[in-house]
């Protein structure tokens, strides 16, 4: 039975995800020498990361759609008198945000799998908000690679706060102990007599639309940085990672490029 060649034309329906994750990888891949099984494993991990990012984007977009729909359905449940007329916890926004958080943690768990084909470091999850990843890198890299791992280690430490807050504390709470804390969708009648809405918010008063937009941007950027920084640990001698040339940033929409060190 002969092995058939195939061409992968489309990795995800979202061009931004494809560009910032896979196109970026394609620009850097020749600077890393991997055996064919490891190379295939790495590509498989990247595809899984992109699938998780697309799932995150789906839930983010659903939150936005449901929020817009609430304003289009004004009038339901209205009655005269009193300041609060209706508080609704069944709009679907909270459910979508819970799904968003679950997919976000799953994305991180999948992301660290790229360390296996690149660095022979096996991690089951993105444990302890990144502390387990930092410890694995510090304890398992040979001395010659520890210096090149510094940018990745610094990024993991810098991003620990928002990951811990949302994809550890809040995510673990809704996965194991309780439903998401939410004000619900509030419709009330102020003194001027006009009915107004307030979209569901978390305990700090931030809307889930704003939160999901912010966290999606953070996660996409985190993955976009994590992969090249991890790859750079295994770059061939005299090759280093740096900002992409302006033409690559504008045309290919990638963040990183390759540079030769001066001998």
Nearest-integer average pLDDT: 89
Question: How does the helix and strand content classify structurally?
Answer: mainly alpha
Q: Over the alpha carbons, how many angstroms does the gyration radius reach?
A: 22 Å
State the shape: elongated
- Which sequence of SSEs, written as H and E, runs from N to C? HHEHHHHHHEEHEHE
Helix share bin:
55-70%
Low-confidence segments, given as residue ranges, are 76-82
Please list the strands of the largest sheet in the order they lie side by side: 1-2-3
Please report the number of helical segments: 10
Largest beta sheet, briefly? Answer: 3 strands, antiparallel
Percent strand equals 5-15%
Q: What is the number of independent domains?
A: 1
Compact overview of the structure:
This protein is mainly alpha-helical. The chain has one domain (15-257).
